[in-house]
Amino acid sequence: MRGPAFYLVFLIFAGTIWPAGAAELLMLEQPGCPWCARFNEEIAPAYAKTQEGRRAPLRRVDITDAWPPDLDFIQRERFTPTFVLVEDGRELGRIRGYPGDEFFWYLLGDLIAKLDETVRE
Question: Mind telling me which InterPro entries this protein's record contains (predicted)?
């Protein structure tokens, strides 16, 4: 059995890894989307292992399915893929389309920087 000090240290440590109001990177996609397939080949396998992926885990949303109720604050898209960075029930930015692996990481870096700005506010 662990004492209260262990749990306090665990909670403090966990808070540095998963801050309150954790961010998500939504991927709005649809079946048959060739650019979604390209993203799935070039980025998706490694995404969760990257610093960006740990900071804003990828959540896939099929735009042909019913819209998730917890995403009512997000403007819907017809263009796929669209990547939407959200945190604490608000949208911080989006990337429309998949511009290829190098440019995607660059644009994503700009979005992730917005998470740092919200921490300072």
Answer: Thioredoxin-like_sf
